[in-house]
Design goal:
Helix content is 34%, strand content 26%. It is α/β, with parallel strands linked by helices.
Length: 225
Amino acid sequence: MIELTGIKKRYGVHLALNIPQLTFLPGERYALIGPNGSGKTTLLRILAGTLRPDEGKIRFSGLDRGEIGYMPQKPYAFDLSVVKNVMLSLGGGNGARKNATATLERVGLANLAKARGSRLSGGETQRMALARLLAKPHKLLLLDEPTASADISASDMAEHALMEYAAETGCTLIFSSHAPSQALRLGTRAVALDGGQICEHGAAEDVLKNPKSECTKFFLSHWKL
């Protein structure tokens, strides 16, 4: 379980995140939705430990930092082969290449295993980074717009791989998405953000299909589910 209490983050004089209280339950899949600048990335970075809040506390129960996997919006790619980029997460050892190759297959990149990771397209780089996470078990996955650069087919493969991984590991998944339809497909829970604050949160079906707050209704009015 992850508990956030009194979390605030400012960029200069701008209050980018203001969360009095929020709890993430183990084994659930949380979709963070909201317009650009609503605080989704800031929240994920704070959870991942790459950004410190100005105020507040985060408590991780039954979870070590080493069990957290984080994928930013623009993941990194080393100037190595794609399969070796994935193998970096495995620390070498027997079976690392086989494991990496199998994971690349799951995200539809097996045909590019020998290509240079630094020369991939944006969507391919995202899937390679996703494979790097899915090649080993994590208790918590944090993903920031994991398919934003992917086409429809690639996005479908990535979503399928994520659902399989979540079922196999029982991990908690927290991801941001600009597409409510994706949030509905992947999420069991949804957290709607606007202006750095929580508009509402609850079961994904309820939040996305029957929103109660005006800010969530306005955001979803631009989409057809």
